[in-house]
Amino acid sequence: MGYGNTGFMLLATSLVMLMTPGLAFFYGGLVGRKNVLAIMIQSFVSMGWTTVLWFLFGFSMCFSGNCVDGTDLLGGIVGNFNWVFMRGIDVTTSSAVSTVAGNIPIFGNAGIPMIVFIAYQMMFAIITPALITGAFTNRVKFSAYMAFLTLWLVLVYFPFVHMIWGGGILWKWGVKDFAGGIVVHNIAGMAALASVLYVGKRKVIDQGLHSIPLIALGTGLLWFGWYGFNAGSEFAVDSITANAFLNTDIAASFAAVVWILLAWWLEKKPKFVGLLTGAVAGLATITPAAGFVTTTSAVIIGILAGVVCYFAVALKNKLGVDDALDVWGVHGVGGMIGIILLGVFGTVAVNASGANGLLHGDSSFFMKQIVSVIVSSVYAFGFTWAMLWIINKFTPVTLTKEEEEIGLDEILHGEHAYTDAM
Q: What's this model's pTM, rounded to 2 decimal places?
């Protein structure tokens, strides 16, 4: 096996792992002083519990079997359970798995071991449900969150990984998602929207933004880790890897600048938090297209991310939807438009494994991307709402007004981030 590719993928895996603590810092800075630990632990606990589920059966649900030869389950929605407990996988197992039709690789790379692929994909599984937590911050009991984390991974995340990346039905149909526009951002954003609408508004107004430097630190870690997120999704070191790396930075930078300019114009101040939020919106939006489009297209995608996500957040505020940390407006909308824009700007001249988009003569691929957005949005929203309803039958999902007033750090965890928050 190729040591160079393996070394690169271990580095990329480490970068993606760093994104979850980065997300915790980002979210932690956005909430009030009494609720810092409660939001941060929701990210960190995913690092532990998601890993357990991944080892037990999650990886197998995502990547064992495929719908081409009928070895997966439910007609291409989830994998089989041949790899539960990592059964049959050792240090010599290659990550390259092929279909019976034409020996076409579904995922991985013959040059890297399966155990590296397992670790890399596990980091994606860890951060995706953690993204949702920013929407319902200050309102959800920890016990209910743990049940939500478990059910959401099993019923939403694992199926979509298989359907798109693991040889499932959407992969067979021709849907493309380089690094997680649907698999990570769109379904997390739609789950966030469903969660907010289910749990309702916060009963106690949280002043929030208690530490903008903490938000900046989190953004820096996310931006840094995102290079592993996007460039690593090529599973090799080649020109496509470099293209995805550069596109990631370009889209984030243009989106950040557009966001701060809009804030300066409409809000009369160049807001630092706006700059940081815009960068994250650009990162989310370029994710599905990073390895499939040119750098010029990445510029356009970044600009559109800044504009569309800014006004999506403004619309959310106008409608009074209490998506506390703008998960839907940034990740949901960003992932959604990124998938659609891939259907516009994608070109096989950049990546032969990709597809030509609308501007390169293939309207059918464009329509597939739109349909995939609709299907994933409806699926993620519906299943999220249903599982919260079920969880609430066994344990209360939300806290009382009195509990919110005291603060979740004290009520749920008996700890405090700062002495003056006691």
A: 0.96
Owner of token pair 């569309």: 308
* Secondary structure (3-state) at 78: strand
Q: Do the Cβ atoms of 187 and 157 come closer than 8 Å? A: yes
Closest to 11 (Cα-Cα) out of 297, 254, 311, 237: 237
pLDDT in tens, 126-155: 999 999 999 999 999 999 999 999 999 999
Q: Which of 223, 190, 212 shows the shortest CA–CA distance to 312? A: 190
Sign of CA dihedral 60, 66, 67, 72: negative
Query: Residue 421 — very low, low, confident or very high, per pLDDT cuts 50/70/90?
Result: low
- What pLDDT does 6 receive? 94
- Distance (Å, whole) CA 172 – CA 57: 23
Q: CA-based angle 416:273:311, to the nearest 5?
A: 125
pLDDT band of 28, cuts 50, 70, 90: very high
Residue with tokens 């494994």: 353
Domains located in the chain, CATH noted: 3-421 (1.10.3430.10)
State the average pLDDT for the chain. Answer: 95
Nearby residues of 371 by Cβ (< 8 Å), 6 or more positions away: none
> Is the pLDDT assigned to residue 265 strictly greater than 70?
yes
Percent of the chain with pLDDT over 90: 91
Among 147, 139, 42, residue whose Cα is nearest residue 394? 147
Task: Looking at 287-395, list the stretches that DSSP marks H as alpha helix, in order from N- to C-terminal side.
Answer: 295-319, 327, 333-345, 363-394
Counts of helices then strands in the chain (DSSP H, E): 17, 2
Taking the chain, what is the end-to-end CA distance rounded to the nearest angstrom? Answer: 55
Of the CA atoms within 13 Å of residue 347, those in its CB half-sphere come to 12
Enumerate residues 6+ apart whose C-beta is below 8 A from 60: 79, 80, 81, 82, 83, 84
